[in-house]
Amino acid sequence: MRTRSGIGSPSRGIPDPAAVNGLMNAFGSAALVLALAAAAAAQDAPPPKPQEPPVAFRPVEEAKPAETAGEKAPGPAVLVVGPAKVTLYGFLRGDVEYDDSRMDNAVFPQWVLTEARSTGARLNDEDLIFHPRLSRLGVKVEGKPLTDLFGAIPTGLLEIDFYNANVSTESRAVPRIRHAFAQIEWPDFETSVLFGQFWQNLSPLFPLVNSDLVMWNAGNAGDRAPQARLTWKTLRGSFGVSTAVAWLLTGAVDQKNLDGVAPLTDSQPDGQASGRPSVEGRVAVSWMPWPDKKKAAELGVAYHEGWERTRFPIGTRGERHFRSEAVAVDLVVPFTPGIFLRAEAWAGRNLSDIRGGIGQGVNATTGREITARGGWAELEVRTFSFHRIGLGATVDDPENDEVPTGATQATAGRTLNRTAYVANRLDLGKGVEFGADWIWWNTRYHRTAAGARMGQGTANRVDVYLMVGF
Ligand SMILES: [Ca+2]
Ligand SMILES: [Ca+2]
Ligand SMILES: [Ca+2]
User: Fold this and answer.
1) Nearby residues for ligand 2 (ion, Cβ within 5 Å)
2) Which terminus of the chain, N or C, has less C-beta within 10 A?
3) Using CA of residue 167, residue 168, residue 170, residue 172, what is the dihedral sign?
């Protein structure tokens, strides 16, 4: 559900690579300027409202609640605890997922395994999984104004689910932090400061389909990470501007440790070892195309840069320093109050920490960063008061010549990861939702160094779920 065309051809759904290149050229310098401006000023970050779709006229933070569909819960439960107002929200949910061909992981799907017979793989190797891991609980805290701090309002949020890879069995899922942050807002100055874990500050939208891994590494960039963030946002009539700059932990998502792989023995992730944070800036404008003042359009442009350092030299180039860079755009357009276009496009290099490049940041054989581009677009249509449908496509396209050339599934380079999908959401009322998704998924692999084909994999993934929100 959220979206923006890749620029170039919204009607086609998938951003055309050439168009994305053009976009990168066009936006590269602009994004840099905006990011710098953002760094010089302050930016956007009000308390998130985890239960609302990103179409509402509010800063992206609030605009990106649930990776999953949590967006239709009824009213939150509010408690008063000491000096704070505490709001509970969340949902209980169970998913049933079937793949007609083997994914890299049935619960955390990122790409399709190759089906090339020469690799020993099987064609259409199906799987089935049941899990309640997306059930979610959130606690939002809002304190009383701090008069000595110019009327600052303290807020905070803790949000957990059970989508944690570190479990012994599927019946023993364990909690995972999604968000956990403390924030201070100065309403008079339209400014706020946030410390803790929250969304990365680029590509804030995510598709309606695939509540599990939201098409990360298949075209949708932008995960969550520990950070410090400064936000400034303003609203003038129906026109808004929001600017945010964030300093984030590099490696919070990919935990990259290039010199921690045998025979190298370094124990520190390379992002931490750099001694520097990633820096991300985003500027967005929003407006109300419809008189109902409920459905906002928004266009955002973001820039990302990060640094990694290893103790031991990596690859034939003997590199010890690595850069991560990206530019990204995101767009939400309500064509009518019931039809939305949402899309993102991005391009850069060494993007595994922001969920780009099909999880490939640096080629450890050569010691080079891998460049990639991608994005996704989705049309969401409200057909009836109780039904929404999402039609979309995603693509993640690393530079073929830069990915690894291994001869096994685990070491082969992934050159293209793309999907097309249909998502159905049935609103049964009182916070109850039923979903049914179908995703066509195709992943291509690079030939081995010796020139042998590693082929490709194509899967159909179906997910149905029942959710009760509160
Ligand atoms: Ca297949
Ligand atoms: Ca995104
Ligand atoms: Ca390291």
Assistant:
1) 203, 205-206, 220, 222
2) C
3) negative
